[in-house]
Amino acid sequence: MPNTNSANKVTHAVVRMYCMGTGDCFIIKFFAGDNVRFKMMIDCGVWTGGKDRLTPFMEDLKEYVEGEVDLLVITHEHLDHVSVFETCSDVFTNNFTVKKIWMSWSENDSLSKIKRWKTEYGEKKRALALASERLEEALMRPEEREAFINGADGLAIMGARKHFAAALSNFSMLHMQGVAGQYKGMLEGMRIVKKEIANDNIEYMYPGNIIEDLPGLEGVRFYVLGPPEKWDDVETEGGGEGESYTHNKILKGEEAFAVAITGTNAAGGTDGILPFEAFYESASDNNNVRKSYDDPDCAWRTIENEWLFSAGNLALRIGTLTNNLSLVIAIEFEENRRVMLFPGDAEYGSWRTWHNISWEGIEKPEDGVHFTQDLLRRTVFYKIAHHMSHNGTAERLGLNMMEHKDLAAMGSLDYKVIPPAWKGTMPNREMLQELLRKTKGRLMIMNEKGIFYDFHDQEPIAGKIKQARSKMNVGEKAAFEDDFKKDETNGYYIDYKVKA
Amino acid sequence: MPIPDKIPAFRRLRGYAFDPSLSLRSDTAFINNIVYNVPWETKLDPGPVGEYLEVVDYDPTTKKHYEPVVLNNKNLLAQDGLQPSEVNPQFHQQMVYAVAMTTITNFETALGRKVIWAPRRLADRDKYAEYVARLRVYPHALRDTNAYYSPQKKALLFGYFEARPANNTLHMPGSFVFTCLSHDIIAHEVTHAILDGMYPAYSEASNPDVLAFHEAFADIVALFQHFTFPEVLKHQVAKTRGDLASQNLLGELAQEFGSAIGSYGSLRDAIGEIDPVTKTWKAKEPRGDEYNTVMEPHQRGSTLVSAVFEAFLSIYKGRIKDLLRMATGGTGVLPQGELHPDLVNRLASEASKAAKHVLNMCIRALDYCPPVDITFGDYLRAIITADRALVNNDSLDYRLAFIEAFRRRGIYPQGLKTFSVDSLELMNGNGLAGNGKDDPIQILTQFFRKYASDISYEQDREKIFRISRKYITGENGLHSRLSEKFLGNGKFQMLTGLVFNTNWKDFGVRTSTKKYLGGEGPSYQIQNLRLVSRVGPENNLLNQVVFSLVQRSGIVMEAGEFKEHYHLGEPLPEGNAGATEDGLPIQDRFVLYGGCTMIFDLNTQELKYVVCKPLLNIDKLKKTGEVEIDRERIRQQYNYQREEGLMHLSEYNRYFGSGLHHPLNEPFCFLHH
User: Fold this and answer.
1) Which of B90, B124, B669 sits opposite A280 (nearest CB)?
2) Contact (CB<8Å) A456/B57
3) Is the Cβ pair A256, B162 closer than 8 Å?
4) Looking at the domain assignment, is residue B212 inside a domain?
5) A452: nearest CA in chain B?
6) Which residues of chain A does B296 touch, with a Cβ-Cβ cutoff of 8 Å?
7) Residues 6 or more apart from B278 whose CB is under 8 A from it?
8) What's this model's pTM, rounded to 2 decimal places?
9) CA B457, B460, B461: angle at the middle one, nearest 5?
10) Residue B494 lies in a domain
């Protein structure tokens, strides 16, 4: 070990969550006593928000890090993790230094395999955007109204269909912006990071990587847990009962759908679009079947747009895939071996692979458990993955293994700024209950307002957290009050001090 | 005199017994290609478009119409229709038609009456509903691993998708897999449509069983329909040496294809599984607590499927005992080697009989189910009651086989003191009878006898529909008669559990648009007036008229408890109700359905059975005479729809659905995702 000057040894870290709305933006400052030794930033995004609203947050951030971060981590390319690089790009492109950037291996566009995959994946995103756009447009047409208005519950049915289309559009916006139908490559926020903020200083990380002794960070180690390197892991979303907090079915192929929407296959041709030889196509538009399909009295039975609703599958698939490509980092304070876990939005498919990583050069823990489990049980700070959703946190291979008595958790969830469809899954009640118990109420949510613990919207989460905090003993309570700080003036951020 | 023109009884159409994948396996190919015998339709237009079905082969994903198949073409008539082929869309049209018609015929045989599709409900309450002659079938409607029945469009939408490449590198699409070529999927979806025609409220998830029942029942029909194919059955009996429980293609293989395309397979999971060690299929033993612990609709449905399957197996075993004794000289141990073909034939014929009986029992039970909020326990009671009504002497212990199989999975009807064939039979409706010719039951049965004679020989489905409508809503029809005779009748109110008093507005019930004796009355629907006319095995004749009453009540909840009623005319808030923009709770409103099915016996002129899901608290009504809404049912339904049920929604449903209490946007599409 090179430098063991104890005055420089990291004593604690302060995790700051910026509260712009549902989305991630974290600054972690590592201290040796009162001296700041290292400044790290993880993601910078929010579901929606204009420049005027967000700039004050980012000005505050800039001031807080004094215009310089030692390390910027981009977990994955979703709007709610990178959008603010675009919205407030001037903050980051002027007088802002980023010394080093970490991204997952899947962002290394210079590798031809990844490049090819990204092009194909881009086609999927394009299909989703197109489908969403076509559906929204179709539901606005007079035909839609004519089809339903005379039937019982017509208005309610149309409402439910619009709700679906809105949820779909939310998903689409998460992945793609600009004019639908023309995939412009990556999200603008991501492009700005790669092309304008980065300066040949991006490092691409693989699971199993261990980084230690970064300048200024004596006694701190980084472990890279995800994303997995195998596609079928990336594509796995739920693990079934006991594994993840819901019964999920594995989502299946939607190639045929994407091809029909975009009008071309991945290779740019039209093979695979038509299921049958052309000579089977109806020669006349005057046969009995055509007449009955086109009969205006039977307009309510037509199926012109029904197939567009299948885009829901595509949306879920793309969402999961990108979430599972999250860069997952565990930060360990070597001396007392406490761990902070930042999993991005990783879902079950990623979590389970962490337990298969062969940690080279790491001694197996004494009781023989896998080193990943060891990391989890030493975790004292957990950034809750995927805004507290049901599939963001693995059950058996995740939360169940976090058994440290000092565990605290932070969730980037805010009902004021959130895609409406997410409210159905975030926060997951079972996980919430478990987190409250395990953290004794050291659960910090970006905005507690409007979030209820129960399904009847009777027990506000704030009260529940308070109740859970009463389980802490006097010492724990005093420590927590000392560690947990809110920006009382502007409400820009929440700070939590993690002791090394 | 001209030679008489004899109309054939059947149209022979080739098709897959299971699905195309079996034709690629050498051990199953020869049983997979079978000929379906569907009833001959003289007027069968290109499509095919017949009396019941209208196959419209339009693919909106490519905006292509495919040329409709002309089954009356002499080339096709001469060779039992088109040869099975995945690449010919006209064969797809033929396949959906053949399987759908087979399913419809099985229902008509069991029910003893014509299948009539659910009418299209209209926004205009005066017009109410319009007749739907044909179910639309779109064989290529979606690009999805899904197929569903759309209650809004009265149509079946089948999807197709690409076979998933073995490696996962997001390949360009390979070959297509078509759901409209799977016997099981077609039968399953048609059954959804038929069931919707009988009980439209079964798509309302008011308890954990309702959607599970829809799924399971559709699967039971698909499963047992396989047993009506003699080639398949003989092959199976020979292969399993008569022991259908040990290994079973009928359960097993459909499982394989099903698992490739989603939820259809999971329904079969409870029947059996492939042993990981021996690689053989074996029936699964129930744990006994499935009913109380498994809540996800498909897994829950699979419990019901497996119960019925087990009942079938024990019936089959009972039926072949004597054959086995004879074949083995009393030892019960079959000799090594292949079974004698005669024995195979006899065993197959017993299996086929048992399967037909089970399928009939399952279908007939529908007539004795409540019109809303069904539970598996209700269904068991209906099976027992329906069978008892027709078959006095249960010499082969069919009913016991059912009770046993349900009991082994923890399925009990609610509110029973003992669990036996006797106690399971539904309660009868005595207590309404009055004296002499003023007796309302007497008057009603006279009315129903007239209905029966009008409808008995009518073959035209539209006429049946119109006559029944006339008897329901016409002048002096059933609706007026019930309202006039029973409004304010405490006994009737107690029997039906529905609001038949003069303060219906206080119970959140709408006012009927009809006037009775010049006055207003509570709104309720009469669903599915029908004549149940069957001949039992002892040549006994069953003559019953059955109909369902459905009434809705608007409920406002507060803190998970009943607060007050609201006027049902107001539309519910769109989308996910529950919280306003800034997350503040709003008044939570939902609709409670109450209903009862009434079965009148025309022979004995009595109200034979009443199956009811009350709006009113019956216990209290009986004990104290106080009329009060059934808060327990409210609590159960509300908790299920807003809490328990939500835990088991699919990923798809969580993000894109509008909640269990708004199952409006294609409930069956969501169910299959």
Assistant:
1) B90
2) no
3) yes
4) no
5) B583
6) 247
7) none
8) 0.87
9) 110
10) yes
Q: Which amino acid is at A347?
A: E
Contact at 8 Å (CB) between A329 and A206? no
Q: What is the overall mean pLDDT for chain B? A: 82
Same domain, B143 and B267: no
Structure tokens at B440: 């309302």
Residues of A in contact with B579 (CB under 8 A): 423, 450, 452, 457
Distance CA B536, CA B395 (A): 14
Q: Answer yes or no: are the C-beta atoms of B365 and B406 closer than 8 Å.
A: no
Interior angle at CA B543, CA B386 and CA B53, nearest 5 = 75
Point out the residues of chain A with pLDDT beneath 50.
1-3, 180, 246-252
ipTM: 0.85
Asked if B402 and B446 sit in the same domain, the reply is no
What whole-number distance in Å separates Cα of residue A102 and Cα of residue B110? 68
Lowest mean pLDDT segment, chosen from A208-222, B609-623, B651-665? B651-665
- How many residues make up chain A in this entry? 500
Residues B574, A282: C-beta atoms closer than 8 Å: no
Give the chain A residue nearest B142 (alpha carbons). A307
Say if residues B62 and A273 touch (Cβ distance below 8 Å): yes
DSSP class of residue B589 equals: E
B466 shares a domain with B591:
yes
Find tokens 């700051």 and name the residue.
A16
pLDDT (tens digit per residue) in A130-177: 899 999 999 999 988 888 888 888 888 888 888 889 889 888 888 877
Which residues of chain A neighbour B89 with C-beta distances below 8 Å? Answer: 275-276, 280
Is there a single domain that holds both residue B271 and residue B399?
A: yes
Verify that B441 and B559 share a domain, yes or no: yes
Mutation for B interface: A48, A172, A276, A318, most B CBs within 10 A: A276
In a domain, B169, yes or no: yes
> Do B393 and B252 lie in a common domain?
yes
What is residue B69's DSSP assignment?
Answer: B
Q: What secondary structure, in 3-state letters, does chain A show?
A: CCCCCHHHCCCEEEEEEECCCCCCEEEEEEEECCEEEEEEEEEECCCCCCHHHHHHHHHHHHHHCCCEECEEECCCCCHHHHHHHHHCHHHHHCCCEECCEEEEHHHCCCCHHHHHHHHHHHHHHHHHHHHHHHHHHHHHCHHHHHHHHCECCHHHHHHHHHHHHHHHHHHHHHHCCCCCCCCCCCCHHHHHHHHHHCCCCEEEECCCCEEECCCCCCCEEEEEEECCCCHHHHCCCCCCCCCECCCCCCCCCCHHHHHHHHCCCCCCCCCCCCCCCHHHECCCCCCHHHHHHHCHHHHHHCCCCHHHHHHHHHHHHHHHHHHHCCCEEEEEECCCCCEEEECCCCCHHHHHHHCCCCCCCCCCCCCCCCHHHHHHHCEEEEECHHHHCCCCCECCCCHHHCCCCCCEEEEEEECCCCCHHHHHCCCCHHHHHHHHHHHCCCEEEEECCCCECCCCCCCEHHHHHHHHHCCCCHHHHHHHHHHEEECCCCCCEEEEEEEC
Q: How many domains does chain B have?
A: 3
Quickly count: other Cβ atoms within 10 Å of residue A384's Cβ: 27
Q: Which residue of A has its CA nearest to B49?
A: A289
* Closest-CA residue of chain B to A459: B559
Is A160's CB within 8 Å of B574's CB? yes
Q: Is residue B209 part of a domain?
A: no
Closest CA to A273 of B140, B24, B76: B140
Both B375 and B463 in one domain: the answer is no
Same domain, B375 and B485: no
The residue segments making up the domain with residue B80 are 10-181
* Model pLDDT for residues A14-68, shown as the tens digit of each residue: 999 999 999 999 999 999 999 999 999 999 999 999 999 999 999 999 999 999 9
As to burial, measured by CB atoms within 10 angstroms (0-12 exposed, 13-18 middle, 19+ buried), residue B388 is: middle
